[in-house]
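User: Structure please.
Assistant: Input sequence and predicted structure:
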Amino acid sequence: MHQYILEGGNGGLQKWLTAIDRVAALEPRTVVAGHKNKDLPDDPAILDRTRQYLLDAIRLLDENPTAREFFDRMTGLYPDLLNPGPVWYGAVGLLGK
């Protein structure tokens, strides 16, 4: 699933990365995502995939693209993720253009 980044402004995405690091430091054997493809396992590797997704989002947001450019680039980087809606409203909400 695409991540819900709309409420990640004002340092929220950085705080999310910090939370991921804290959970990873616990060395969990299982991590259950709140929203996911039901066919995927509850594998701790989701932490690394989520971290990379957020790092890519931050990098692209820092480039100050239009909402459409951000949407196109994120969905291009992650074409196999489900539900691109959060990418669009996150882009519009965070970039406002």
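The first helix runs from residue 12 to 25.
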